Amino acid sequence: MFVRTKGFEAKSSATLFECDMEGNDFDGNARNKTKKTPKRAAGKTICQCFMLTYKDYFQHSSLHGVQYLGEETRPKKDRIFWLFAFLLSICCCATLILSAYNKWNETPVIVSFAERSTPVWNIPFPAVTICSETKRVLQSQSNNTFANLYSQYTAEKHNSHVFQPPNVTSKELEEFRTMLHVCNTHSIQQDMPLIPGDNLDYPKVLERMLPPFDRYFFYCRWLSRFNECDKYFRPTLTEEGICYTFNGLRPTDIYRKGTYQYHQSAENVSESKWSLDKGYDASCDVETYPARVLSAGARSGIFMTLQSFEQEVDYACRGPVQGFKVLLHAPDDVPQVSKQFVRIPMGREVLIAVKPNMITMSEGIAEYDPQRRQCFLGHERPLRFFKVYSESNCELECLANFTLAKCGCVKFSMPRSLDMPVCSENKIHCYHMAERELLVREFHRVRKLNAKGASLDGRPMETACNCMPACTSLVYNAETSQANFDLHEMLAAEGDTDFLRDYPGSQMSRLSIYFKQNQFITSKRSELYGVTDFLANCGGIFGLFMGFSILSLVEVLYYFTLRFGVNLKQMYKVDSKATAECKI
């Protein structure tokens, strides 16, 4: 395949010409040059072979413009022009490829609309958590209401460090201490007087104060079937006391083992066959857990009548706005009613049309680092207290950990292990301020790192909580409409005079929750710029500016490995033969 070139023959003749047996030139003069060592001779041979291969490559290269640099007969000005054009093309390629790499590295994921719409039966009906603003049944014959005790409590602020009201039973004092945690906690100052007493089981006291369930949840209808509301709702412990949740997962399905779980009674519910990442199992029937519906509209939703009583309203605890708070959330999320809710006032009919907002992910982005795709898979961010990762659960756990570190205890409604201390009344101000302090610290930390240029390739900095959204998430948006609901006029029109005698002071509201549409458009996290796109873009840039391809790379490797080795071997053979001829 390879033939001896003219360069090799010229070298052989020159060698014979320069040397003889006695070390003299052919003209008889002794050589004054120092005899070359074998290493120097080998280095010179390799250098000559490299230059020979270099010229051969430039004369026969498939890259555009390179062959002009290898033509020795071409004028020097032409070769300088083509060298400048070649270097300019390399600079342009490097600039554009760097831009393409930054785009691939910084924004590999895009959130766009999915190709197909999703029917509502593929997702669970939203979990509905309802909290009454009435936290306890007031005893009209007692003067030790929350308002009276609270006025005495605030009056003692500058007079004593210990609050010991006279003529108050231990039961009333326990209830007052518990109400301080669920009423307007922002009014509790840091230097409030201490309340003597043992550590309380706040959920147990809340249960004791709780108004009867059937008095406030008058009747319910689910999927066009009327039934008692207690068959659908489960008591839930929240930051606003004990509320009631419909279609939420059981505490054993949400919390890890060893975490405090509030529940009043054992529930005969089958195991959940739904997860946010995989959806419902293929074996699930129409009626499953958590529940789902087959269509949109009020008939396929939940309808209920809520009731409160004028004589039981406690304005000192919850303020002038009474009624109920309603929170729609995913079944695997812990409800945090005080953050986002829909208010249901008394004497109104409220319709809530639900519009799901679901974000899924493609399989390709699972290989990316979480900081690059800006979301967590379920197994990438295990939580201490929760089995299921979600952004809200993660933030709640982070708040509990921060509160424990700052105050030495956690609020009774926060997730906690069985051995964590629960904050008493003297720590209300502490855990109330801890939430704001955590947010301020997160804000200043990220801003400081970004100001120092420590951001990760233009992506948001990882916060101390490290609570990015889950890659698959489900949020229920609500559209509300209201109308007047006059109970007294309705009873008068029907001639019913017995109802108000049985339920004196009754105030009613009606609530209907349903999906707005049978199908909805989901969003999807997918690759904006994958490895294939990056390589294709680089190939297009190289081809446009230099005519470079994979075969061009193979050609370079061929010339400077295989071709270079064969040429070098032939040159060594020529040198050996010339040396032998010199000796002869």
From TrEMBL:
Pfam family, one: ASC
Keywords: Ion channel, Ion transport, Membrane, Sodium, Sodium channel, Sodium transport, Transmembrane, Transmembrane helix, Transport
Main location per the UniProt record: membrane
Transmembrane regions: 80-101, 541-561
Subcellular localization(s) per the UniProt record: Membrane
PROSITE patterns recorded: ASC
Topology class, membrane: Multi-pass membrane protein
Lineage: superkingdom: Eukaryota
Family according to the record: Belongs to the amiloride-sensitive sodium channel (TC 1.A.6) family.
Name of protein: Pickpocket protein 28 isoform X1
Species assigned in the record: Drosophila arizonae
